[in-house]
Amino acid sequence: MTTVSNEETRTDRLVKWAVDLKYSDIPDHVVQRTKDFFLDTLGCAIAGRNHPAVSAMVRFAAQMGPSSGKSELIDSSHNLTTSPPFASLINAAASHVVEQDDLHNRSIMHPATVIFPAALAVAQDVGANGQEFITACVVGYEVGCRVGEYLGKSHYEKFHSTATGGVIGVAAAVSHLLKLDASQTLSAVGTAGTQAAGLWQFLMDATHSKQVHTAKACFDGIFAAYSARDGLLGPRDILEGPRAMGAALVPGKASPESIDRNLGLEYAVVRSSFKWHASCRHTHPSVDALLNLMSKSGIGFDDIDSIRVPTYQAAINVLSLSGEGDTVHQSKFSMGFVLAIAAKKGQAMITDFTEEDLKDPSLRVFQKRVKMEFDAELDAHFPEKWQGTVIVTCKSGKSYRESVEFAKGDPELPLTRSEIEAKTRALASYGGIADMGTVDSLIKRAWKLEHESDVRGFVF
Amino acid sequence: MTTVSNEETRTDRLVKWAVDLKYSDIPDHVVQRTKDFFLDTLGCAIAGRNHPAVSAMVRFAAQMGPSSGKSELIDSSHNLTTSPPFASLINAAASHVVEQDDLHNRSIMHPATVIFPAALAVAQDVGANGQEFITACVVGYEVGCRVGEYLGKSHYEKFHSTATGGVIGVAAAVSHLLKLDASQTLSAVGTAGTQAAGLWQFLMDATHSKQVHTAKACFDGIFAAYSARDGLLGPRDILEGPRAMGAALVPGKASPESIDRNLGLEYAVVRSSFKWHASCRHTHPSVDALLNLMSKSGIGFDDIDSIRVPTYQAAINVLSLSGEGDTVHQSKFSMGFVLAIAAKKGQAMITDFTEEDLKDPSLRVFQKRVKMEFDAELDAHFPEKWQGTVIVTCKSGKSYRESVEFAKGDPELPLTRSEIEAKTRALASYGGIADMGTVDSLIKRAWKLEHESDVRGFVF
Q1: Number of other CB atoms surrounding residue B376 within 10 Å
Q2: What pLDDT does A206 receive?
Q3: Which residues are in the MmgE/PrpD N-terminal domain (chains A, B) (predicted)?
Q4: What is the mean pLDDT of residues A54-69?
Q5: How remote is the C-alpha of A446 from its chain's centroid?
Q6: Which of A56, A86, A204 is closest, CB to CB, to B241?
Q7: Nearest alpha-carbon partner for A176 in A30, A29, A14
Q8: Neighbours of A372 (CB within 10 A)
């Protein structure tokens, strides 16, 4: 009747891989992409710094945390340094505000906004160098995204996988920085998993849980790893056990093979996508298809009568929750509004979504004439591929169809370094940073991160 | 296509009741029972203070939290005062170690171990008096237990309801102490609910998540309430919304009427049970039945050949997870071992479960001859009634059957004040407190809690 088997589980194998990973094992293109996403995250954090959720967390940290510490806020204007969980709480909330952080397609997760803030705060706490930081981030991406893939798209119907997979990735990344052994890391992962939470309900009323989820994934994963170091034991098979995440959070529908397939042969970091447009990632393929179509056909905003958008179920689910988009944030979750912005402005960058736009009747009329429809073929490929199709009917009666297999920023179409730099400057500018000298020096430092002796001072 | 309805939800009604409750509204017997459970919790916390999970959390608080604060650890030996989330983290972990804290039968929750530590830490932070503290605790019990009942027994199959319902109760109790209005409290409750987590997986390998769950329910609920005060918006219908707790954590099986039925007419505090025995609460009715049977029939430990224990499914689920009980903690989750202890020692108090007992062959042989079996009738009444039946076959061939409708400590059979005092002294003694003068003065202060001008100094 013994219940603890000594057989190696997939969770064991994943943890063993994470513990053993060394910087020298990581292919150069993975290192380079990790730096791309790190810089991208810094930009996102500064762009989102004034959101009320971030302000509430700054206040929580100031009131409940230490009066100073080794971990920094990416937004230095608060003059607050603190302990790792509080610093990452704030940085993770801030970097998930403007919907410009990355997306790991297959897991439907945004790994950057949880992995980098947590690893940065802890790397600062323990004095890790650039290579150690990069290694921990690669571990965090890999473990987090594999858990997200394991939980899969039916989990994503109710749960914000960025949080539920993310907390495990954070625990693994932080464990690596703390140099925990496999047994301790398994405990950290287990304790992280039993805290996994994050529901989509907030989309119904435009409330602030999206930032709570990324923030708390950091806090809770850091708690899990430091506590594991200090003797707190976590359940050994928090993924596949009979009362574990798979069984409880996505009964009967998890994908166990995702946990340990091709470990060390594939890297989640290079399967993650940049966000180029400032809207919900589910709108991006359709935006690209529409912009391509308009460019090819020469039609303009005013020529368009209506648009049909065949898409996969997850897009319909998420994009149906925000109504017409009463706030700027909600408007980025309306397929109709996002396509209206893109069609009218020729792009959908962060500066293209404003309070004034919410009141623009031409956008609102256009928005109403966009209809999503379920497409079984696109759905069958999701989330392996995030494809987009638009079928545009013009006022002239003419009709056009355009599809994209990949969106700009997808692993198959990544941003170039100069595009990432431009995006970073735009994000900083949106966040109210006037001094582009600071931004340029952060960019320079990020590009040579593997040669940095520490990761302090990545602040605006 | 608007998604936010202005119709009053059950969650709205529950929150409105919580915000409006005044001390003068609370019937005296509810006040008295609240004090009973408060004292009981203090004893539990001191008894559990040396558990490795508690030590890891003390270290986490010392390292990540402030160097001092207004909130106290019930175990004063650490010389640490801190901020409310860290103090409650530690006190909640400690008070859930020895399995002697209360049980709210219908929700299958242990409310005391989350509500009191959170409310105590916040009451100390804001300088609340005894009446304000009691009122907040009554709110926390009511809201938390109603959410636990809403989620129900199928939720409990995978989730530790003490955590998932508890975090909401904490948010409500803390909101009351912070004097938040209904809208802010709704946000606090929403933010708490989107963090709700806690899986039973740890029972499989005797790891420490049970304490993580109570500790984090406090931390997270306090985070939710303070953040709500500071402008963080939470989803408005975190219980019944389409992507909310009911839909995600117990799809199709929640009990909405539990949320707001008889609000202000029934009180969860007086529907909660004391734990008299030191084992998993699911074993208590069977222990009582066995002790009654042995007392009536005059048979002793050595006379018993085997025992059949008809019981409800939730007991079988939880008690099947800990194997034979390789640790003292696990042994309290083995029906066979617990009945063996009770039969041999005539009781199953905290001092009756020792490392030596784990190696006692007579107990191990007895343990193996106890078999639980599913009983449809007992199951139909659970969790309204936690009934117990044992069918004992003696070595002589004679067989006996005994049932109890309620266990000692149930609302129908509550402990007396002198029993509570005796239990508190036993818990303190188990926790290594030699000075019974301190214990006696805490007991005295607890009995006149409603006349206290503050709730500081409830420490051993």
Answers
A1: 9
A2: 78
A3: 13-253
A4: 98
A5: 19
A6: A204
A7: A14
A8: 20
Q: Which residue of B has its CA nearest to A65?
A: B65
Q: What is the CA radius of gyration of chain A?
A: 21
Residue B440 covered by a domain: no
DSSP-derived secondary structure for A121-146: HHHHHHT--HHHHHHHHHHHHHHHHH
Neighbours of A406 (CB within 10 A): 18
The owner of tokens 């002239």 is: A396
Sequence-ordered strand ranges (E) for A24-162? 71-72, 81-82, 103-104
Task: Specify if B447 maps to a domain.
Answer: no
Question: Which amino acid type is present at position A327?
Answer: T
Give the model's confidence band at B6: pLDDT under 50 very low, under 70 low, under 90 confident, else very high: confident
Residues A293 and A213 in one domain: no
Do A146 and A218 reside in the same domain of the chain? yes
In this structure, are residues B174 and B225 in contact, taking their beta carbons and an 8 Å threshold? yes
Q: What's the complex ipTM?
A: 0.92
Partner-chain residue, chosen from B2, B53, B195, that has the shortest CB–CB distance to A232: B53
φ, ψ dihedrals at A99, nearest 5°: 60, 40
Write out residues 356-395 of A within 8 Å (CB-CB) of B: none
The pLDDT of residue B182? 98
Confidence of residue A2 (pLDDT cuts 50, 70, 90): very low
Contact (CB<8Å) A187/B205 = no
Task: Judge if B120 and B39 occupy the same domain.
Answer: yes
Give the B window 194-223 contacts with A, CB below 8 Å: 194-209, 212-213, 216, 220, 223
Closest residue of B to A68, CA-based? B66
pLDDT at residue B5, as a whole number? 62
Cβ separation of B199 and A208 shorter than 8 Å? no
Please check whether residue A39 lies inside any domain of the structure. yes
DSSP E strands, B203-356: 272-273, 304-311
Q: Does residue B10 sit at the A interface (CB-CB below 8 Å)?
A: no
**Residue span of the structural domain in which A174 resides:** 10-273
Angle at B398 between CA B396 and CA B401, to 5 degrees: 140
Q: What is the CATH number of the domain that holds B366?
A: 3.30.1330.120
Q: Residues B131, B135, B138, B141: what is their CA dihedral angle, to the nearest 10 degrees?
A: -110
Same domain, B294 and B233: no
Express each pLDDT in B348-367 by its tens digit: 989 899 999 999 999 999 99
User: Same structural domain for residues A201 and A306?
Assistant: no
Average pLDDT over residues B319-337: 89
Residue A418 lies in a domain: no
What's the pLDDT score for residue B84? 98
**pLDDT, tens only, A18-53:** 999 999 999 999 999 999 999 999 999 999 999 999
Residue of A nearest to B195 (CA): A197
- Asked if B241 and A201 come within 8 Å (Cβ–Cβ), the reply is yes
Interchain CB distance below 8 Å, A53 and B223 = no
| A and B: number of Cβ contacts within 8 A | 235
- The CA distance from A372 to A370, in Å, is 7
Question: What average pLDDT does this structure show over B337-350?
Answer: 96
Nearest to A338 by CA among A94, B281, A169, A322: A322
Determine contact: B285 vs chain A, CB below 8 A.
Answer: no
| Range 79-118 of B in CB contact (< 8 A) with A | 83-86
- What angle is formed at CA B10 by the lines to CA B5 and CA B14, rounded to 5 degrees? 125
B237 contacts in chain A (CB < 8 Å): 201, 204
Q: Between chains, do A187 and B194 touch, taking CB under 8 Å as contact?
A: no
pLDDT in tens, A240-291: 999 999 999 999 999 999 999 999 999 999 999 999 999 999 999 999 999 9
Within this chain, do residues B148 and B25 fall inside the same structural domain, yes or no? Answer: yes
**Strand, coil or helix: B154:** helix
pLDDT value of residue B19: 98
Same domain, B98 and B233: yes
What CA–CA distance (Å, rounded) separates B153 from A195? Answer: 20
